Amino acid sequence: MDAKYIDARPLSSAPTVTSALSHYTLGSTDAEHRRLVRLAAHEEDRVVDACRRAGIGDGAVAVDLGCGPLGALAALAQVVGRDGIVVGVDASAAALNRARELLGEVFPQIRFVEADVNRVTPRDLGIDAADLGYSRLMLLHQSAPDETIANAARLLRAGGVLIAHEPSDLATDAPSAEPHVPATTRVWELVVAVARARGATTDFGRRGRSYLERAGLVVESSRAYVVHYPPEIGFDIPRVALQSLRPILAEHALADDDEIARLDRELDQAKSSAHVQWVSSPLMIEWIARKR
């Protein structure tokens, strides 16, 4: 498995998510969605490159599984072009409504379907079959990744491709920074602990080959990468995660208010430090697998 360390900068001259969404003015209360737009822009080139290597292009039908309020929808829309179709699938109506608000006018080839990724069918999506199924940070949260992958495979045509960008769940592969900021590691440990407390099996990123092959898919490539973010973005990621997970952390006694406040202060101070060189994502693993 090849390792890649990638700076969070555009890798091509193609239109970016940020430029595509430049028509949309986020209000002062939309900090979370502003963050999502910036993160999507940093991940865009990885999505486009993976699709290119998998043979996905103009006119294809792509499904973003667990797309949330933005996901890879804009990047996939650029890959398939105006003649293609992108379907964003998520169980959250609120997330899909925001995605529709952000992207619907810019990318008319995107559809939005409220459904469980473990049960959705091609008929639900309004397609015969997909050329591509895509996931990012979705399989980390599934209780039975085997079932999720098996259903994703059922959405694909013969010869169709599944691309997964999923993290390692190991503490040794947690986000980091230079110089080291312990709060980045601790928040990742809490993210994984919350997923497990809610019943998730979190090991797809590092054991993807087994899951994909059990679903009858042929693994064509795998590679590991770490994204380096500028501090103003990189430290916001765990801060937002920490606050959004606060009720679940309390429910499962994973962290108390004092620890959450301490971690937030540490991240905020690091964000303002002139000495921080970079902040990284967790170790991410890309899996590309094809349906026979």
Describe the overall structure:
The protein is of the alpha/beta class. The protein has one domain (2-291): Rossmann fold. Helix content is 42%, strand content 23%. It has helices spanning 17-20, 31-54, 73-80, 93-103, 122-125, 145-155, 182-197, 204-214, 231-234, 236-244, 246-251, 257-271; strands at residues 2-7, 61-65, 85-90, 110-114, 130-136, 156-167, 177-178, 217-229, 278-280, 284-291. Strands 1, 2, 3, 4, 5, 6, 7, 8, 9 and 10 form a ten-stranded mixed β-sheet that branches. Helix 3 links the parallel strand 2 (61-65) and strand 3. Helix 2 (31-54) packs parallel to helix 3, helix 7 (182-197) crosses helix 12 (257-271) and helix 10 (236-244) packs antiparallel against helix 12. The longest helix is centred in the N-terminal third of the chain and has 24 residues, at 31-54. It is globular, with a radius of gyration of 18 Å. The two termini are 22 Å apart.
**How many DSSP H or I helices?**
12
Class based on secondary structure composition and strand pairing: alpha/beta
- The CATH architecture is 3-Layer(aba) Sandwich
Task: Characterize the biggest β-sheet.
Answer: 10 strands, mixed
Total domain units: 1
* Radius of gyration based on Cα positions: 18 Å
**Which regions are unreliable across 5 or more consecutive residues at pLDDT < 50?**
1-15, 22-29
Q: Assess the beta-strand content as a share of residues.
A: 15-25%
**Cα distance, first to last residue?**
22 Å
Total count of strands: 10
**CATH topology title:** Rossmann fold
Mean pLDDT: 89
What pattern of helices and strands is seen along the backbone?
Answer: EHHEHEHEHEHEEHHEHHHHEE
* CATH C-level class: Alpha Beta
- How would the global form be characterised? globular
Percent of residues in helices comes to: 40-55%
What's the CATH H-level superfamily name? Vaccinia Virus protein VP39
